[in-house]
Amino acid sequence: MATYAIANPASVVRDVFVDVAEVEQVFLSNDGDRGIAALIVIGEKNYDVLQHIFDLESNIIKALPGTPINFDVVIRDGRPLGEIVNPRGRLLFQR
Fold first, then answer.
1. Any idea of the CA torsion for 31, 66, 48, 79, to the nearest 10 degrees?
2. Nearest of 42, 28, 31, 27 to residue 74 by alpha carbon
C-alpha cells in the first residue's frame, strides 16, 4: 500500500513566504466552502516583489491540489496594518 504525505496548507504557505524579505506578515484563515484565504502584508509597492509573490502563489496552488485558496496582498505604505485591514485567521509569521 502506498503512503501519501498530505501537505498542511499553513506549513506550505509559511514555508514559501518566509524567505521573501519584503513579506512582513502572513495570515491564513478558513473561508468555509470557499477554501482558505491567505493575507500577505508588504511594506511598500514594488512591482518586482509583487510579481515574485504572484509567482509564489502559483507554486502554492500547485502544491495544494484540490484546496481552493484565495490570496490578498496588502501594501502598508508606512501605515499601521490596523488602519488598512483587520486581519483574520492565524498569523503564520511576522518580521
1. 10
2. 42
Which among 15, 5, 18 has a CA at the least distance from the CA of 65?
A: 5
The pLDDT tens digits for 14-70 are 999 999 999 999 999 998 888 999 999 999 999 999 999 999 999 999 999 989 999
Q: Rounded to two decimals, what is the model's pTM?
A: 0.88
Give the DSSP letter of residue 71. E
Neighbours of 80 (CB within 10 A): 7
* Cα–Cα distance for residue pair 32/10, rounded to 1 Å: 16
Query: CA-CA distance, 67 to 60, in Å (whole number)?
Result: 10
Are 70 and 52 in contact by the 8 Å Cβ rule? The answer is no
